[in-house]
Queue: 4 jobs
Job 1
Amino acid sequence: MGYCFTTAFILAITSFAPAIITAEEFKVGGDAGWKQPAPTETEIYSQWAQTLKFHVGDSLRFEYKNDTVMVVDKYGYYHCNSTRPVSVFKDGKTVIKLKRPGPAYFVSGDPDHCKNGQRLMVEL
């Protein structure tokens, strides 16, 4: 009798406990990495992001050559305006931790690359 009660109690407690979510690191763009998309693939980063679910604490890993990653605001993202970035990275292997809920915006530091689709918005 005591064993059944204990088992039922443990099952009840674990059923109502919140799921533990571990932070993940996502390589931006998958195998292609962070680069200017081909003319026929201007939506590649939007499509990539739509297939994933991001949470606070996750990280984005940008791998690139001869380029930059800029964290920008909404205006900078939609207008490919890199004159007031929040942060700029040039090291070729950048990991950015997602720290707050809501959208996060990233663009290439080359305005032409951004206009050709090298920009990313993720929603947490």
Job 2
Amino acid sequence: MPNPSVNLTLQFTLTGSSAVTTVFVQKGKDLYLDVKTPVVLVPDAEFRWKFNSAYILRLLIDNRTRTTSSYVGRAEVSLQNHSLLLKNVQQADSGDYTAHIIAEKDQRVAEYKVIIQDPASPVKLSVNSVSNSTECNLTVTCSADDSHIISTFRCDTQTCYQKGGEKSEVTTSGSSLGVFLSNVSIICNHSNQVSGTRDMREIRPLCSPIAVSGSLFAGISVCLLKTVVVSVGLIIMVSAVISVHLMERLKKQK
């Protein structure tokens, strides 16, 4: 019996305004298609799941199942809700899936457009940095198997920003490739409807130090800086008191 819970993270369903529901599934995973319309079989009627123009399986009124030879071991139908489970889907399984009640008339009770996708390929983020006395310029390349994006980031002692803002594009395989700034990191992200990968680099090691002048204390908190200054002041005062005391003792001994 198909178990819908095992597919919650494996497929993505997009329901539009029409009767057709689009479902994205990762290659090698299982496909689950349900039937929301109640199915009641009368004598001499049968229920069928169909892929494009070919039948996958037939369910008779006495719950006997007839599965097309190419789907034996891969396709299952639920006797309770008539949902379809198709195991280990491949690219060839992309297409139109319909459920029918066949009696005096052919009643279509479910319709799906299924798209099988490969997992999003790994990405690589490469960075070239150039620093001067006041700023750091980073030129990054975010690359996937079939595409890449080049973007520039500029940092000074206070802030970093991405020239032109976040960049993204749709690759030739239909996935999304993007590079953007998040807090103190540059992120390269590659995703489609079934999976995603990312690569990231922290900015600080790439731009450290930006410059000596004006950036010596960059990244040090104000509280820490005050603590250091006060501590140094106290040390100087204590040392001065001790020095005066020693000098007075030496004078008395003479």
Job 3
Amino acid sequence: FKGNEFAWVDSAYPVSPYTIPVHKRPASLLPENTLFDSAVAHLRVRSEHCMGALKGRWQCLRGLRVNINSKHKHRAACRWITIAIILHNLVIDVEGAVQGEHFADTHSRIEEEEDRGTADLARDNGRNYGEAKRQQLVEELLAFRQM
């Protein structure tokens, strides 16, 4: 990640400068955190649908088991995924969006969990920064809602 980039993750991951999960209890019970967690959940569902559609259409992405241990291998994996996205969008342009929606259902939640494997847990260093970043995002969402 560069600069202020981060990933939305589920509550199984710890908060860090690069991972922003939804809140756990009791913090999840606060109204502002409930609103934030709901917005994050909506984003994650949309993202999962995109990944499901891609993996449903391009089975090669399900088997993309690359040990990324160098910049070269990272770039190769990114190119592989980018090519699948470009082809997916071209097919949708030719066949129409309705055909593309079909593939979102062919990749189930269980299959997605199998594809992910076990998560590498982030270290505690940066946890305070991650908490502050998440709080800032909550405040920005509340300010946006009041506009």
Job 4
Amino acid sequence: MPEQSSSSSATATKSAAVVPDVDIEKLLSREANAFQREIEVERILKAFKLNPYEILDLDESATAEEIKRKYRQLSLFIHPDKTPHARAPEAFDLIKKAESELLDEKKREELDAMVKQARVLVLKTLNLPTTLKDDDARLKDIVPPVKQQIRAKAKELLIDEEVRRRKAVKMNLANEGLEAKKKEEEQAAKKRKAEDDANWEANREERVGSWRNFANTNKKKKKTKVAVLG
């Protein structure tokens, strides 16, 4: 009996020792997971805002299904309810916008055209044929990597395009402002004319009365002169 009791105590001690280890592993796993979520939020916030491929961390060749899948993964991973990062909601909005832009056929075509232009410019700078495929051996040992250079060049082009777009918007707003001011001045002029016309009509009787008085006064003067001469 004492031996069985001793054996049971040893087993219980082992079990008791194992449980804390499992709990520690779970705790460490949760902390590591939370840390990874925060790192991903930071990556999204630091990504170039005009390039949705960079925000979603996708290659330019990604299909519509791959875009949707990546968005679903990221949205679950960095969801504000699961991530303690203070700016998680902002990162969440960014990935949603990025998915929307890449699934918009027209916007993606415009973006892809800019990326292709960047690729051509980079290859020309490297004195390489612009028709080279991405897996061409001549691109492997280039430093910094060609993809990195293309992203950087695309960033420059996208910034230039955004600056032009904002200038155009500003100019349109200025033109609209001038047009609105012109219309406002025209309306004010019409209002003044209408008021002047109304005042003219309102004072008609007064003017007529003044004229009659003036005419009558002149007639009396003439009659007085005639009487003197007689």
